[in-house]
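Lab notebook, bench 4. The sequencing result for the construct came back, and we need a structural model before the next group meeting so we can plan mutations. Quick request posted to the team channel:

Model the 3D structure of this chain.
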Amino acid sequence: MPIYNLTACGGLHGHVKVSPVDGTVYVPNRQCGNSQSVVVSQDNGVTWAIHPVQNGTSNAVPGTIGTGDDPAIGIDNNGRVYFAFSNAGTAASVATSDDFGVTWNNILDVGAIYGINNAAFPAAVAGDAGRAAVAFYGANSGTGDSNSGAFTGLWHLYVAHTFDGGAHWTTSDVTPSLPMQRSGILRGGGADIVRNLLDFFDITIDRDGRVLVGYVNGCSGGPCAEAGSTAHGNTYSATATFARQSSGRRMLAADDPATTTSVPGMPFVTQRRVGPVVHLAWNEADTGNSTIKRYRILRGTTSGSETLLATVSGNPPATSYDDLTATDLTKTYYYKVIAINGVGSSCSNNEVASPFVGTPSSGMIIHQNEPTHPEATGGSVTTPPAPELLIDYIAVGEPAGTSNLMFKMKVEDLSTVPPNSRWRIAWNWWTPTSQMYYIGMTSDQNSAVTFEYGTLADAGVPAVLVLGETKVGVPDANFNTDGTITMFVPKSAVGNPQPGDLLGAIGGKTITGDTPTTNTFERSTTFVDHTFIKGQADNCYPPATYIVAGNGPAPTPTPTPTPTPTPKPHGKK
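Done. Here's the predicted structure in token form:
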């Protein structure tokens, strides 16, 4: 049975919610006429009524960014409805109703305290009477269209709570130090690289009334999370993540904690190792309502063996630390960060591993097969792939004394080059407009090798994950029989990224069996090997991201000393 006519409301809507009090069904819709609205049935779906979210002073304006965001609904145990929405795409807002959506009260901007001017993907949940929470992505910085890759803002996850039925809200930045997305967030369909988050986002409560938010971290991993605020690019990743309330009042009053303060929440730690230096940074979203006094940094060379390395103090203490003593390049270092407030110490189950992955001048390994993985030796449940097409690792670097990017792919062996094959590395970049680039080696029917770089775009083929290559130029490149392919391309030819910028979704793939009609297509189902499948998002973990360091000056040659002649005795020849 239709719940509305498409001339009255848009086709897409938010999640259906049912009142725990009387079974009333609510369907939030992003646009019915000039308002975001709720479609309501009080008779088990036999009839439906459309109620715009508005009152005498405020209106829930449909999204004007992209195709808008679906609103969301939470219903408390007294039947009060909480309607969470992105007002015109710019303000994170909530409205309440006690009469099944006929009238609306307290239409409030819950992101104003943080200066939010772009809001996306609202979600809502409620518990006991008067208690509700809403979550949303918000940005309070940046210029340009937040629906596009040219947007320069940083996005954070926010959660707002009310304990008085929506009259007042307390909003928290759940990712205060590290953004969960850079660049734009696509609101709408298509295959743009800023559609990496899709709309996998929701909020619920656990059995004890704690708020849980399941969201997508689009900027996970040290390179993206720790990049500067002016950096261009993103991971273009999709890392499933959840945020869990760890202190404060709950959505179920009977489970409220006995005291107003608690130990801090566990810091969320990221790492980035560059040569002999490990850069650590972390989010501290929950102080336990008691000021953080210091952080303890623990380090070890085996998992679980960490001991105190350093203490970070201050008012407030910094949420980053550089370990300059990680000088053993043969070892993986393990770290934990513990927060301390006036009540006690946080949980320490936040270990991160920091293996040595190279230097910018020699190449930073982006993805490497585990040596024990069956693919590392060609093992497979089916016929093993040819070792010439089996990827060991891919790496990105910036040779000193040049203005080039260097890309490396190591396969098992290239003493024999298979014909009609391709070895490709692709990556995402924010300019000119959400661009995808590739570089790689190609063999013809006689196994003669050439190299090329260019751009990737939707191939226009009626299938999923088919990209088309457009050759732009020829890089300086070579390969060795040990399977190492090394390629150099001027930065100016691939978007001209600057120091601090991010190359995201860097992926390797190999293809064989090319024909004249398929040799520019990259179809995911025909890859012999790949470091991940690239659709709207980089789905590998950790994300395959490189932070541009700058090439640096060429090394100064060591002069050859001029030998000093040995004096001969007078009269001898």
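The longest strand covers residues 502-512.
Will bring this to the meeting.
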